[in-house]
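Example record

One chain of 449 residues, shown exactly as stored in the release files.
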Amino acid sequence: MKTYVVNGRLIDGTGSPARELQWLEMEGGRISAISAGSDAPPLPPQAQVVLDAAGKTVMPGLTDAHCHISYGVARGIEEQDLFGSAEYRAIRGVYHARKVLQAGVTSFSDPGGSWYVGVAVRDAIRAGLFPGPRMSSAARYLSTHTALTDYFPSWVGAPRSGVGAYTESASAMLAEVRDQVKNGVDFIKIAASGESAIMTPGGGSVPAFRAEELKLIVDEAHRLGRRVTAHARAGQSVADCIEAGIDWIQHADFMDAACADRLAEANIPCCPALTFVANVAEWGHLVGCSQGRIDRFRRDLDLAVKNLDYAWRNGVTMMCGTDSGFAVTPYGQWHARELELFVSLLGMSPLQAITCATRNAAFTVDPNNLGSLEPGKFADLLVIDGDPLQDIRVLQDPARIAAVLLDGEPVDLTPMPEPHRWPWERSMAISERELYRTTVGAAAKEAAH
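Predicted structure tokens for this chain:
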């Protein structure tokens, strides 16, 4: 049966200017026809209208290209890697996925997490067991002892519940790729650079893999029909990923102009995920982030803006992703903030930023069927009470979300409560800083005045 959305302002996600929508026809969960423009054909007689969007904006549902559904709003690495069974994390993940959908995100890519939680959440949503966005998912990040996921001392190692899988030999790298493909991942995630104590003289993290090791991983994944992405911040790790034929890059905020030029020439998209860094830099003091971390993230953000501004202006395709899944980026809260940052920090127009969160970001999930409102694509729509081309921030206001459609069907937008936190989910920190006698004395003097 054919159904229709009528009226409103149409932003189709292709990058084309907004048009006046006459009607959008949907059949079998897909868009079958669109009539837009002042001289477009009128609505067919006896058409079944499911939504009148007069005075509103009709656009593709957003795609978050970087959302970790297994993290569970982690406040620290211990919560991320140690607490919660695979079973509990999967159940928690489908709950949080619904919150992501209600925020207008009709698809997202999960670039790695614990066990195969992302794969399980994806399959449960596809099977119709729970409402949620369309998903693509990786599993544990392929890592080395200098990679991002090398959090714990060598005598602890990489816990089975952690997000990193140590692959310190070529045979281990090949075996991990094959095991993950066997267990249903959509793509492979590599921790190609790190945040460890091993740093380059310029301040960036040292590459975690040799160039030939990255090439081995990418070649094997491609041979098995899977794509590959990488966490790569430092310029050398980005350059090595380009040489290896990576499919898309996460972050790349420490790359120089020469590396950005190579990325553009290779036509490899980039997902900076600035929201995580910006939230800590701007508001970390509100949620107990240390001043040292806040200061570091402010410096990182300044450098990222400089490098990424050059990159997109010189041909690098940018995709919106938020690193949602941490306590500073809870599910359902900040998915549209990346668009605001692309506008306010990188100087994009609102239309350019929307394209980064629709057509461009859909590359990480299903570029053939998602990301734009065109005949043949899934009828995944976001209807906003307002004009994001005038104020991109309206996309972050839940009260402005007039409707979300998935497969042409309205999504239940009834707010969901925050789930209870169990004692075993908490980081086992006793305090954030040391309690010296001088600290107590200074506090007493301040109170006396």
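Notes: Residues 62-335 form a domain with the TIM Barrel fold (CATH 3.20.20.140).
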